Amino acid sequence: MSFSVTEPTKGTKWFSGILVVIYAVITIVPLLWIIATGFKSPADSIAYPPVVFFEPTLEGYVNLFTDRTRATAEMLEEAGPPQTWYEEIARERGTVISGPSRYGERFLNSVIIGFGSTALCMVLGTAAAYAFSRFRVPLKDDLLFFILSTRMMPPIAVAIPIFLMFRNLGLNDTHLGMILLYTAVNLSLSVWLLKGFIDEIPMEYEEAALIDGYTRFQAFYKVVLPQAATGIASTAIFCLIFAWNEYAFAVLLTSGTAQTAPPFIPNIIGVNGKDWPAVAAGATLFLVPVMVFTVLLRKHLLRGITFGAVRK
Amino acid sequence: MTASPITKAAQHTPDGIAKKIRGLSDRSIAWIFVAPTIFLLLAVNIFPLIWTIRLSFTNYRVNRPNKEVEWVGLRNYERILNDPDIWHTMQATAHFLFWTILIQVLIGFALAYLINNKFKGNDLWTTIIVFPMMLSPAVVGNFWTFLYQPQIGLFNYVVTFFTGGDPADFSMIGDVYLAPWAIIIADTWMWTPFVMLICLAGLRSIPDSIYEAAECDRASKWRQFWTITIPMALPFLMLAVLFRGIENFKMFDLVVQLTGGGPGNTTTLTSIDLKREAFEKWRTGYSSAYAVILFVTVFGLASIYVKALNKVKER
Amino acid sequence: MKTKMMTTVAAGAILASGLSTAAQAEDLTLCWAAWDPANALIELSKDFEEQSGHNMSFEFVPWTSFADRMLNELNSGGQLCDLMIGDSQWIGGGAENGHYVKLNDFFDANGISMDDFIPATVTGYSEWPKNTPNYYALPAFGDVVGWTYRKDWFDRPELKAEFKETYGRDLGVPASLGELKDIAEFFQGRDIDGTTVYGAAIYTERGSEGITMGVTNALYNYGFLYENPDQPYDLDGFVNSAGAVEGLEFYKELYDVGAPPGSSNWYMGENIDAYRSGQVAMQMNFAFIWPGVEADENVGSGKSGYFPNPAGPTGQFAQLGGQGISVVSYSEKQDAALEYIQWFAQPEVQAKWWELGGYSALKAVVEDPSFATSQPYAQTFLDSMAIVKDFWAEPAYADLLIPMQERIHNYVVAGDGTAQDALDGLVRDWVEVFEDEGKL
Q: What Pfam families does the annotation carry (chain B) (predicted)?
């Protein structure tokens, strides 16, 4: 092992490690609190004073996925003894399950819209970024700034025209409409990020390919794309995080068919006021896909965030 | 952006090779590649923006479909700029922007600096630190109201565990002096990791050879930090400020769930105020003018900032 | 997707077997707020689906975004909702802007009489203009602000004794708002079974309508009037009368001396949480929560009592809540929607509605001799419904609500200025709205 002057000393490492771990522990507490709340009973979730140790229950998750009605004696009689473990949980609260809740649907909508717009955004963004990186595009700098500037608009500011426009086009409250909308919002960021990555890929590779008889399109497809894969992956993380969690447009433009989970989760109500365990359970489950996606792609996270400026 | 040798090469290459390629010309490929993006942005961003600008000169109200729409010229703009309440919300926004950016940059940079010391397991801890920014801001806002409840929330109990006193002594979102800090704390919790990632990337982009050279010159660590680390990482820091600035200027979901703009108007940021005008009072024309003013403000500030950023980068 | 397929299958089955339904089976969507009674309505509607062959879908929007979302839908002529259980204050806009179908002919043709419903709910939920026989909705859910209190705490001998010593009267249901404040103050910060408890959870929410729905319970009873009874839209001296100022000051005092710390942005849900978790001795809340309180493991089964909003110096009123059910004029399935209303208006259905926790507004249900004793809160509900008063139901109600939220919240919670300033400012804001509307 060669000695390097830039390698921090052991003491520095320990010191840094301890401070970072302290921060990580503090920052993870609210998140753990959310996850723990999902396993509390409704009474424990609003216990005064708050409780740290409690008897875990799946009631929050049952409530998240079902609609329940307060049962009259007659209904209970009619329904007979509970058939399943989740019915049993509902019965203990004097309620019967009247059907599945909308959470599954909302979650599925989030999956379709989140991943759909991320995919579309990567296709369009990579193509545009390649063109900006390699070709002389008229008014290139202005166009690039224009693209970035579209991200500066507060969503509320354009929500009314978008709402009216979507209605005329039949896109209101549809998956396609939301996919197009989120793609447009994310394109600015992804074009900028991806251009950085493609700038980093040496021109020589493509030139060699062109000389070998590839068309420009083939060169893009067979040479540039594989090289840009990590960049695309890391850009995708950020697009997904945004599309997955977006709230303002979702709350204003969707309702019945295409509503995503974020406007839905904070307002899950139970049979008596807000159902905090169900809200927490919904938030926890909703975090899982994007968390998995991020953990899988974490190596590329750093490159993604910096327009590919990290050099090896 | 401009000076990299690669882009230079890109600008100068084609002529010789271009002639040899079969199929589409570069020019048409360029257009095919850029057009869908531009088209989508025009349709979903620019067209509504133009529509908003048009509406801003009218007294149109979405909830009065039967009422005749009149052109009112600049009256909407006049009313907004003369409204003291709007300046109040601008002030609240500025306070929020200033402190969130300052605190997030300080903590984010410090964390990045520590993590860059490459202690064992830094990868794992970085991933853990990043988790909050993956949550939905609306859900975060919602949960922080819960955490901030003096009676049933965790925040006051944790704070008073260290400082002593009774958890019910203070209320983060109920107090006019604490509420602006309540939203700053929640936003900082959520977005510091973002700043940290950018800073970390910046620190990792500094080649070791520069430090090695400095070491040979017997520059102290302290001096290296100020003459190498900070200047080299500055473009990244500025980028973080730009992104956080733009995002927090638009901030809506987290704060609206957290405080609803209260108490009173203490945490009514401009985007919350705008939402009230547009979707509660339904003053479409008026709120369109408001939106245009906000857009021009942030666009102007960002343009100046990006110019500065490019200068720093070229240095 | 799945539900649509199910409908098609169900509809096909009905058509194939040639069952009784003459009309085509439709897929109806009913829009309402996402809350407890909505769950009960799903259950109730199963009978309708069975009888009519129509399929019911439901779109429930959380209270805090209910008005935004649904008014947006109506204003844009959206066809999402066939049936709308819209808030009472929307009726003016629904009627004047043509969002709701006028129901007079339908009522006449089907023998539905508004005389069969509690008068306050007919005025509050169905009529526009108010006090004229023009109906745009059928009263669907009667609701009113009332109070819940911890009977078990009120009954403790040591507390009773101490209260008597301090205030010279018995600790019990307050006869006036002033007494209510005394009780709240008495409990504020008190140690009960090892935890600190507080007086009363009251509405203070800023974002939608919370604090307005709360403060009016004090304002009305101290002499606040929306307008000159003899001259419509004449506000000055009525909205900001000396009595109104006193009422507003009362509410602020109640907030300062009797409400839990941090209750600066509380509405229905937060009040329920505070009450259920044993933080407060009393809570202000709409009547819809009472079935839930009775059933609660901590505060239910006899531990809680209920009383109507106590009187003030000039009268006794309570803020009206609740909604009527309307047919949306943009719906293409109006016939099926009307069929639903016809079904819903039947006395048996209304009786079951009450049983499931829905507050029926049908006289036949509430005037039944067994009603008052059917639940511990039934009598309180009846007493409260007799003293209701509603906020503006003008088409511009949202424009009127927003400055009220802002002025009141600024004064009560943020402590800005004086009560007189707040109400004077409110008069200015409201005059401006009415001028915009062309009503002044």
A: BPD_transp_1
| Higher pLDDT, residue A189 or A174 | A174
Residue B62 lies in a domain: no
What is the pLDDT at residue C39? Answer: 83
Contact across the interface for A48 and C73, Cβ inside 8 Å: no
Task: Fill in the DSSP letter of residue A56.
Answer: -
Q: Which residues of C touch B157 (CB under 8 A)?
A: none
Domains of chain C: 23-143+321-389 (3.40.190.10), 145-319+396-437 (3.40.190.10)
Q: Is B165 on the interface with C (CB under 8 A)?
A: no
H or E element, residue A66: strand A66-70
Question: Chain B residue with minimal CA distance to A136?
Answer: B11
Question: What is the model's pLDDT at position C48?
Answer: 94
Same domain, B104 and B249: yes
DSSP bridge pairs for A100? A66
Domain residues for B36? 1-55
Residue C244 reports pLDDT greater than 90: yes
Give yes or no: residues B11 and B106 share one domain.
no
Alpha helices in A93-174 (DSSP H): 103-134, 140-149, 155-169
Higher pLDDT, A300 or C357: C357
Give the C window 261-290 contacts with B, CB below 8 Å. Answer: 261-265, 273-274, 277, 279
Query: Which residue from B minimizes the CA distance to C411?
Result: B264
- Same domain? B21 vs B100: no
Return residues 53-92 of B near C (CB < 8 Å): 62-66
Q: Which of A51, A271, A276, A279 to mutate to test the interface with C (most CBs of C within 10 A)?
A: A271
Q: Does C97 touch chain B (CB under 8 A)?
A: yes
In chain A the domains, ranked by start, together with CATH numbers, are 104-305 (1.10.3720.10)
Interval A7-60: pLDDT, tens:
778 888 898 999 999 999 999 999 999 999 999 988 888 888 888 889 999 999
Beta strand C83-87 with C323-327: parallel, antiparallel or unpaired?
antiparallel
Distance from CA of A174 to the nearest CA of C (A): 12
pLDDT tens, position by position, C105-154: 999 999 999 999 999 899 999 998 888 999 999 999 999 999 999 999 99
CA distance, residue C264 to nearest chain A CA (Å): 18
Chain A contacts of B115, Cβ < 8 Å? 16, 20
Per-residue confidence band for C353, with pLDDT thresholds at 50, 70 and 90? very high
What are A68's strand-pairing partners? A97
Whether residue B221 sits in one domain with residue B91: yes
Tell me the nearest-neighbour CA distance from B152 into chain C, angstroms: 8
Do residues B3 and B103 both lie within one domain? no
Which residue of B lies nearest to C409 if distances are taken between CA atoms?
Answer: B264
Model-level pTM? 0.86
B149 contacts chain C (CB < 8 A): yes
B89, part of any domain: yes
Of A68-82, B103-117, B141-155, B236-250, where does mean pLDDT reach its minimum? A68-82
Q: For A147-165, how does the pLDDT look when each residue is reduced to its tens digit (9 = 90+)? A: 777 777 778 878 878 888 8
Q: How many domains does chain B have?
A: 2
B65 in any annotated domain: no
